[in-house]
Amino acid sequence: MALAIEAKRQIFNTNQRHKSDTGSPEVQIALLSARLSYLQEHFQTHKGDHGSRKGLLTLVAKRRRLLTYLRDTDPERYKAVLQRLGIRR
Known about the structure:
CATH architecture of the domain at 25-85: Orthogonal Bundle
Number of helices: 4
Structural class: mainly alpha
Largest sheet: none
Shape: globular
CATH class of the domain at 25-85: Mainly Alpha
Helix content: over 70%
Mean pLDDT: 92
């Protein structure tokens, strides 16, 4: 399920680097993290939903690739994103 428009807007506002930023790695990582937390709650009640579990693993891999890119290009932004989103790495 997609995130609600208001939830996305809130994520954009807290993570964007400038006013019209919607595609920076920070924003993409924050959106993926929100979707992952939603799916984790979903699996608490729907333990047999293996189709969505494959999607979860795909999202985790995509977020990991974005974090690796950010770590290699700008370590300070990487540390800030980890701290802001509470991601263990």
